[in-house]
Amino acid sequence: MDLLDVVKQYHAQTKHDFNRYARALGYMDWANQPDPFRRYEGAPLYKLPLLTADDDPVAPPYESLFSSRPVPPQPLTLHALSRFFEYSLSITAWKEYGGNSWALRSNPSSGNLHPTEGYLLIRKTAELPLKPGLYHYAPKEHGLEHRWHGSTEVIEALLQPFPSQSFLVGLSSIHWREVWKYGERAFRYCQHDLGHALGTLRIAGAALGWQVFLLAGLNDPTIGTLLGLNRLHEFDRAEPEFPELLCIVCPARDFHRESLPLTVDQGELRHWEHGDWRGQANRLSRDNPVPWEIIDDVTKASWKTSMEPSEIHLFCAPDPTRERVEAEQHSLPGPRPDTTSAHRIIHQRRSAVAFDGNTSISAQQFFTMLERIMPHPDRPVAQRPMPWDSLPWAPTIHLALFVHRVDGLPPGIYMLLRNNDPALKAAFQQAMHEQFAWTVPEPCPISLPLYLLESGNAQRIAMQMSCHQDIAGDSAFSLGMIAEFDASLEKHGPWFYKRLFWESGLIGQVLYLEAEAAGVRSTGIGCFFDDPVHRVLGWHPKTQFQSLYHFTVGGAVDDPRLTTLPPYGEPSESRKDVG
Length: 579
Prior knowledge:
By secondary structure, the protein is an alpha+beta fold. It has 2 domains: 244 residues, NADH Oxidase (3-Layer(aba) Sandwich), CATH 3.40.109; 204 residues, NADH Oxidase (3-Layer(aba) Sandwich). It is built from 15 helices and 23 strands. The strands form 6 sheets. Strands 2, 5, 6, 7, 8, 9, 10 and 12 form an 8-stranded antiparallel β-sheet that branches.
């Protein structure tokens, strides 16, 4: 069986259906629950300063993150670096109930299990009291564990193709954290959690005026080397950790550069074994992880071994005609007030656990949310709207929407195509039920390829499709993220399977913040019945399109039994290195 078949078989085997859920343990082994915090014992820890909302010289409004005039870039200081990790991967609150407590983070996670780990690779910078090298971000301490101290020359050579002050941020996955609860479907959840984390990195960068680009041309062995995850002797008794992605973060904009590479020079990797490596990965569970061969198989099959010498072009001549047309297309009445700070929206983001079944949103709010997830693939990558400027590929994920309570829109099933391509629309129409209307709803802006397929009350079917969960029907709207599945994998290869989920998670992260900005709340839904969704839409048993992730937005019902506590106690500007 070739690698692409392994990936497709994994996807088919891990589907939920009315009479069969994907395999899991079938019980919760609480005594073996993984620790949600990885630490490297023996690695020096540098604690980042804890900041308040008033500590920024520039506190951008949330709406400015999406503006064509971005936030002015902040200098790379310890203050700014702390804020970057605070907005992307830190703890935002603790919840407490019945003597138990658990942390909420900026990056949401399936079941709050957090399989995603973050790393920093940075050069010597005058404004930073950090040695050059590799650091692991420790969210519980809001600190950086110094894993590797390398020579200034080696790191400078690696980062030479990028603008001054640029640094690398990497993400990895610990599958066991999700497998412990979700069994064989867990690999999917790890991947859309990565998409959420990629979104938080990009949004954190936008709040500081920094650019963040995914180095999509890299292969997984290179990422593993740079993040120190190939040093298996330092994970001797610890649960395995897998390299996933690496981003370049550009605080300073070098206007002399017309393009940026999306790879690094592999010749520099020969120096990576040299230098001072410190730290042994901690063990997360009492007992050894329960083996799941299917997870191992899909991990190997989706392992990216190729390197693409790709780049992004940062600047091109403006097109006045396009700008005029876009201004006309985006002339929605009554823009959203821009007084709420990005800090507040990022910190207040929560995953809803229940909806009230009454709250509605306006059509304008609905359309604004959808506008924010449109990547505009006709533009050069670096001129796409945030956060879609971080992904170099054309959109592969589209939305099947179950609209329940949007004032001014009839309830029903809708389709949003995130690429306004007539051929794409024709492919969906041919694959889906013939009776679908494909009409443009009356108040919809012409910039949105949104189509009403069938009007009527879709609450019951939305709940049925999402594992009978009330949250899918009690919301203002819910949705399924539909991937161009076969075409994407055949074009790129089996490694692109993970990227389909990354794109889905990135959509979810935008919707999380958009819901908060609209005064409502949202949550991702990982449990849904795959092929029943496909039958409702019309293409089962074909796999041309596949639903990868569900999501729902509405008026949240809070649990009054829970106590909310601050993430780190009292802020302080002068926390000391305890390593």
